[in-house]
Design goal:
Elements: H1 9-26, E1 30-31, H2 33-40, H3 44-56, E2 60-62, E3 69-71, H4 73-103, E4 106-113, E5 116-123, E6 138-140, H5 147-152, H6 156-163, H7 178-191, E7 194-197, E8 204-212, E9 218-227, H8 236-253, H9 258-273, H10 282-289
Antiparallel strand pairs: 1-3, 2-3, 4-5, 4-9, 5-6, 7-8, 8-9
Helix pairs in contact: 1-3, 2-3, 4-8, 7-10
Length: 300
Amino acid sequence: MEASGHRSGGIQSVERAIAVLKLFGESEPDLGVSELARRLRLHKSTVSRLLSTLEAGGFVQQDARNGRYRLGLQLATLAGLALTQYDLRDLARPILRDLATEATETTTLSVLDKDVAVNIDEVAGSQPVKHLGWIGRRLPLHCTAAGKPILAHLPRKAIDQLLARPLERYTDRTVVDPTYLLAELDLVRRRGYAVALEEYEVELTAVGAAVFDHRGDVAASITISAPTYRLSPAQLPELGAMVRAAAQRISARLGHSAAHTIHTTASRASTQSTHTAHATNSRALVGAATGGAVGVAVPD
């Protein structure tokens, strides 16, 4: 097992690290370097290096009293996140189906992964011509109906960090100016949903709303998407209301209360006000940046 000529050192190290972690689960909860080396048929120095790397990442921890290792809490954190996403998908699936039936368009559930939104479920609409993404698709936060509701409800520091970087322009309608984006995020929080009218893909329009967990933190977003020719600006408020109501139903299943949403949104909106005071009319700003489509989407 020590030698594996056809594999790169990087891949072999990953395989060995996985083997180390699996041994803890398959045997006793704590193991020493010598025992791990014997079971894996590796040199003690190799196992020691693997354990040092895993310990630095929080995947194992060493008992200072006897020098033996056990699984670290980082694994519990990752497992909890994974289970939350799977539970979320199970909880949201019936509501996604209902929403797709009501809107006759494709609906999608997305979660945050670092600085992008990732689709984890999708229900196709009944229209003969429909928009279809794919599960696992990664979407930018600043210009998609999946990303903007999540971004709008992140802590202020996270928003500032994202907007401090150059934002990619995907179409002529992509908003990349931080001033306009801050105004739009404020609008998303106030009306409860976001609109993306050909900002990421030409001929694609979508609306999306945030899903909250029991702590009041944003957990996901859901969207309705369709070819632009089928969605006039006058239809967007109705679709926005649909997606907002569906998101509230999912949030309730996660233990979130509407009162918490109102309190959290008001607090974050107050924090934002010092950064958008120069924008006397955020609707006008966003509308100007997007050809008017977003600005007229819904009344306050």
